Amino acid sequence: MLVLGIETSCDETGLALYSGRHGLLAHALHSQVEMHREYGGVVPELASRDHIRRVLPLLERILRQADVSPAAIDAVAFTQGPGLAGALLVGASIANGLGFAWERPVIGIHHLEGHLLSPLLASAPPSFPFVALLVSGGHTQLMEVSEVGVYRTLGETLDDAAGEAFDKTAKLLGLDYPGGPAVSKLAESGASGVVALPRPMLHSKDLNFSFSGLKTAVSTHIRRAGRLLSAREKADLARGFVEAVVEVLVSKSVQALAQTGLKRLVVAGGVGANRQLRAQLAQAAQTHAFEVFYPDVEFCTDNGAMIALAGALRLQRWPEQASRTYAFTVRPRWDLSAL
Ligand code: KG4
Ligand code: ZN
């Protein structure tokens, strides 16, 4: 089965072709980061309009790359939510338009399901069951993944997501959007232990997270200085921030593995690209004897490949989920455990 995947939930337009037999045939991505940069964050209306401009040229590109004609495509998968309503509507309407024109079924995919299945695109994929740590700009969750489509939420953030905390801290430090990569790069030149920030909910005895207090602690630290921080002070503060986030994420992941008795951890979402997080998880994996799996770096952040993959896996397992009504809805807010 050959599935076209379309991702337009936020500021990346991603298209891909995934074959049940041959794996990923082609994928293409357009990032809107440059367009949103001057506003310091994603402007939803601009995002929607740009997705409209990008989807069809990217489709033509992946068809050429894979050297297939639209007639070879068996189904169209699109991100149905969660995400920005207008941006999601672009993907949903184009996916359904193509499905109708090509007389092929369509399937709506949960964006986070795409992220948590994305390590299956790697050359050494994990087998089921596993614990997934989802750390993106909008979500921080620990899930127990029994098999495709069977997910249980173990814990989640009560306020800001980890990526959001990175982005807000970046703004406080005067760094460019998107903040995550900039903060983690700056932290690498900072000294460990100079700035001690709180570890929110580290000892809460559950698997939930809270990161808004940490961002406030960064802001208080800057205000207390009463002057502009030097480059070195900023680096030390970034280091303190990253160490606090990473310690909480690693500790809760280890607890989730102990609680479920599982020995495999999958890390997905943009923050999964963070080098300090990867280093600390590698150490914890040795100490606690578990394995860690990541998507390839290009599939850590939003992309079409994970949506095409999720569509193919779902249609293989539940062919009845293929829809031919072409009457679509989007779900800007959508709980993954409701699947
Ligand atoms: O999964 P993603 O691409 O989009 C969402 O679905 O949200 O994640 C984007 C988030 C942003 O908050 C970004 O700052 C963060 O991931 N991020 C990072 C890194 N790369 C991206 N955070 C920390 N370290 C990184 N290297
Ligand atoms: Zn995402």
Would you kindly provide a written description of the structure presented here, covering whatever features stand out?
It is found in: Cytoplasm. Keywords: Acyltransferase, Cytoplasm, Hydrolase, Iron, Metal-binding, Transferase, tRNA processing. Fe cation binds at residues 111, 115, 302. Its EC number is 2.3.1.234. It comes from Candidatus Glomeribacter gigasporarum BEG34. The chain is α/β, with parallel strands linked by helices and 339 residues long. The protein folds into 2 domains: 2-117 and 299-338, Nucleotidyltransferase, domain 5 (2-Layer Sandwich); 128-294, ATPase, nucleotide binding domain (Nucleotidyltransferase, domain 5), CATH 3.30.420. It is 43% helix and 19% strand. It has 10 helices and 10 strands. It has helices at 33-37, 44-66, 85-102, 111-117, 162-172, 179-188, 212-225, 231-260, 275-288, 305-317, and strands spanning 2-7, 12-19, 23-31, 75-81, 106-110, 130-135, 140-147, 150-156, 264-268, 291-293. The strands form 2 sheets. The protein has a 5-stranded mixed sheet, with helices on both faces. A 5-stranded mixed sheet has the order 8-7-6-9-10, sandwiched between helices. Strand 1 (2-7) and strand 2 form a beta hairpin. Helix 4 packs across helix 10 and helix 6 (179-188) packs across helix 8. The longest helix has 30 residues, at 231-260. It is globular and about 65 Å long. It starts with a strand and ends in a 22-residue tail after the last helix. The model has no long low-confidence stretch (mean pLDDT 96). Bound molecules: 5'-O-[(R)-(carboxyoxy)(hydroxy)phosphoryl]adenosine (KG4) and zinc ion (ZN). Residues 10, 136-138, 163, 166-167, 178-181, 184, 269-271, 273-274, 301-302 line the site of 5'-O-[(R)-(carboxyoxy)(hydroxy)phosphoryl]adenosine (KG4).
